[in-house]
């Protein structure tokens, strides 16, 4: 990788984002805002889901309005196993990721046959289906959700998710891994086919690429990554509930991706940081922060296309 | 199987279907003609509920209150179109989804602050709170019958409007080819505003007539919106006929499923298992229906011609 990129405004901005994630457990106590560490852990967990959404939406053009469902599926994998006393991560995690992947395969196979607005509505509807399913099963807490008594057990000495620092850096490493994975996917042959299908699906068909399979594969990868975010969220909060996959969460994920800069590798992280900090700050100012947030969202959509990354990208061109 | 209960649940399901149709008809028209994904359509339903509750309280008359609320709904819809939604027609679907999501967040919070989390309601006057006795011992609440009949009348009106009038002709033409209608010298902006106003009135009317049964409360629009999405996906986006058939189908299956699926499951499994599986399956029923229909016909039951 060319290190000169780090000297551009965009490179500096992205480096700051990563450095904030790495050093927040030191910065937070230093500025006497200890809760920032927790906020950042949450940010990084949400970022994993946003990265996966960016993969299919930003690079593949698939606007999934039901992406939070994968967070829910991953979360409930931990919650349900834990409620039966099965705490081994080697059962919880593969099952959580696999279930998310299988569900993505099913709804992807149905909804990718349709296009555009159908896709938005169908992903939303299927996500609501799982939401209502989780509400209807009393055995696993219905509306109230499930409290998780013990975090996933990896059975490795000195690696215990109950330890706050272990948890934080596990989340960080996994998020960084997902960022790297998305970078590798986007720049692979597979990723180029996906991006080309976004810009002109018919052309790709004509030159002999069965784009359906490529899109479905991307959708399944994104679903599994969303499941990972849910596994981490359940472990971090010690709690799962239907709320984590309510449709508004899916809407917020889309907004984070757009705010950070859709179709850029680091966009989801920047978007998640700004979004969660903004909601934290606004909700401290007034209980009715949605009154400000709603119009802000509309203004971002109408006037700030390209998000933060897009803003810095414009900056770069002027430098040239 | 208890046939009286079956018949009563049929009326409940039909009533849900009517409400769904009123919301879905506007949604499918607005999408079919303006190519606009309007998540805030459920917000218009909520508007209707709160306007009706307010005016019924002020006038102390259910009918007068609702008659006043209808033109107010039209004005509200047109204002919303002129201020925000008009700028979105040229944007892509993602922008439309996000901006209208922003509208939902704003208005839900607004009504939450203005009326509190319990919201507000409408009491039925005595002349509407009776019960109709049908042959065979079937009873239907009078007001439920009012909803069904008025919904069917609106459906008939909509059918006549779309198929017999000049405006309807333009609406149909707009749904199959927007640019061509504009090229023929029709004021397409005005047509869009009118169609949006019509959709707002339909959704608002649904919100009004349901309020005496449920409540006017913040967030009520979104549960109906997502069902309306299912309806228009099943019916075929842009088709009013499709919306009607799919709405009735969805209303009946959802209601019947909730009442009878555990009874049906008892035939094949034990009581404990049926009690657990019953609610789970019935909550998923309409989505499974949607999946099956999409697997067979990816553009819904009645895809509009030329689209």
Describe this structure in words.
- The complex is a heterodimer of chains A (320) and B (307).
- Chain A is mainly α.
- Chain A has one domain.
- Chain A is built from 13 helices and 2 strands; from the N terminus they run αααααβααααβαααα.
- The relative contact order of chain A is 0.18.
- The model of chain A has no long low-confidence stretch (mean pLDDT 91).
- Chain B is mainly α and 307 residues long.
- In chain B, strands 1-2 form a two-stranded antiparallel sheet.
- Chain B is globular, with a radius of gyration of 20 Å.
- In chain B, a hairpin with a 3-residue loop joins strand 1 and strand 2.
- Chain B is built from 11 helices and 2 strands, in the order H-H-H-H-E-E-H-H-H-H-H-H-H.
- Chain B has one domain.
- Chain B starts with a helix and ends in an 11-residue tail after the last helix.
- The chains are: A mainly alpha (320), B mainly alpha (307).
Write a concise keyword list for the protein shown above.
heterodimer; A: mainly alpha; 13 helices; B: 11 helices; 2 strands
Task: Kindly estimate the percentage of residues of chain A that lie in beta strands according to DSSP.
Answer: under 5%
- Globally, the shape of chain B reads globular
Record field, number of beta strands of chain B: 2
The helix-and-strand class of chain A reads: mainly alpha
Supply the helix-strand structural class of chain B: mainly alpha
Unreliable segments of 5+ consecutive residues of chain A: none
Radius of gyration of chain B: 20 Å
Task: Give the N-terminus to C-terminus distance of chain A in angstroms.
Answer: 20 Å
Number of spatially distinct domains of chain A:
1
Major β-sheet profile of chain B: 2 strands, antiparallel
What is the makeup of the main sheet of chain A? Answer: 2 strands, antiparallel
SSE arrangement of chain B, N to C: HHHHEEHHHHHHH
How far apart the termini of chain B lie comes to 45 Å
Widest beta sheet: strand line-up of chain B: 1-2
Q: Roughly what is the average pLDDT of chain B, rounded to an integer?
A: 89
How many domain regions of chain B?
1
Which residue ranges of chain B are poorly predicted, with pLDDT under 50 across at least 5 consecutive positions?
Answer: none
Name the largest protein-protein interface in this structure. A-B, 43 and 43 residues
Helical stretch tally of chain A: 13
């Amino acid at each position: 990788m060319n290190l000169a990129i780090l000297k551009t405004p965009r490179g500096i901005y992205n480096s700051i984002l990563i450095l904030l994630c790495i050093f927040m457990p030191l910065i937070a106590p230093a500025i006497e805002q200890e809760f920032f560490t927790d906020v950042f852990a949450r940010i990084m967990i949400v970022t994993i889901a946003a990265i996966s959404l960016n993969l299919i939406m930003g690079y593949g053009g698939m606007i999934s309005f039901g992406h939070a469902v994968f967070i829910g599926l991953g979360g409930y994998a931990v919650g349900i196993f834990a409620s039966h006393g099965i705490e081994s991560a080697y059962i919880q995690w593969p099952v959580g990721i696999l279930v998310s992947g299988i569900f993505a395969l099913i709804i992807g196979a149905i909804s990718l046959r349709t296009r555009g607005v159908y896709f938005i509505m169908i992903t939303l509807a299927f996500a609501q289906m799982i939401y209502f399913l989780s509400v209807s099963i009393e055995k696993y807490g219905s509306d109230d959700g499930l409290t998780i008594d013990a975090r996933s057990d990896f059975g490795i000495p000195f690696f215990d998710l109950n330890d706050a620092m272990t948890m934080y850096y596990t989340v960080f490493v996994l998020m960084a891994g997902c960022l790297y994975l998305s970078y590798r996917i986007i720049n692979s042959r597979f990723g180029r086919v996906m991006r080309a299908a976004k810009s002109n699906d018919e052309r790709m068909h004509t030159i002999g690429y069965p784009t359906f399979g490529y899109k479905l594969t991307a959708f399944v990868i994104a679903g599994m990554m969303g499941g990972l975010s849910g596994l981490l969220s359940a472990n971090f909060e010690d709690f799962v509930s239907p709320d984590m996959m309510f449709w508004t969460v899916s809407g917020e994920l889309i907004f984070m991706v757009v705010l950070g800069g859709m179709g850029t590798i680091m966009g989801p992280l920047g978007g998640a940081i700004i979004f969660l900090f903004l909601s934290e700050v606004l909700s401290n100012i007034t209980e009715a922060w949605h009154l400000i947030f709603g119009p802000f969202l509309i203004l971002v959509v109408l006037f700030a296309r390209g998000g933060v990354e897009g803003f810095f990208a414009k900056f770069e061109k002027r430098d040239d | 199987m208890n046939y009286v209960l079956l018949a009563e649940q049929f009326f409940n399901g039909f009533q849900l279907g009517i409400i769904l149709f009123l919301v879905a008809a506007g949604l499918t028209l607005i999408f079919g003609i303006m190519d606009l994904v309007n998540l805030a359509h459920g917000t218009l339903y909520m508007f209707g509920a709160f306007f009706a509750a307010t005016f019924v309280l002020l006038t102390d008359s259910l009918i007068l209150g609702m008659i006043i609320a209808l033109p107010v709904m039209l004005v509200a819809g047109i204002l919303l179109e002129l201020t925000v939604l008009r700028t979105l027609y040229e944007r892509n679907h993602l922008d439309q989804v996000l901006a209208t999501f922003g509208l939902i967040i704003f208005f839900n919070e607004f009504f939450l602050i203005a009326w509190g989390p319990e919201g507000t309601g409408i009491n039925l006057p005595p002349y509407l709170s009776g019960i109709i006795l049908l042959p065979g011992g079937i009873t239907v609440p009078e007001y439920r019958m009012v909803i069904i009949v008025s919904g069917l009348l609106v459906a008939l009106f909509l059918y006549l409007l779309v198929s017999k009038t000049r405006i309807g002709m333009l609406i149909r033409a707009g749904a199959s080819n927007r640019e061509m209608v504009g090229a023929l010298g029709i004021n397409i902006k005005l047509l869009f505003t009118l169609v949006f106003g019509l959709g707002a009135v339909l959704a608002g009317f649904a919100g009004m007539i349901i309020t005496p049964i449920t409540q006017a409360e913040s967030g009520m629009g979104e549960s109906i919106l997502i069902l309306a999405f299912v309806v228009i996906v099943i019916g075929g986006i842009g088709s009013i006929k499709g919306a009607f058939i799919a709405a009735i189908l969805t209303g009946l299956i959802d209601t019947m499923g909730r009442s009878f699926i555990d009874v049906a499951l008892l035939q094949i499994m034990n009581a404990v298992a049926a009690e657990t599986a019953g609610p789970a399956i019935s909550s998923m029923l309409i989505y499974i229906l949607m999946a099956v229909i999409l697997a067979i016909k990816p553009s819904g039951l009645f895809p509009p011609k030329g689209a």
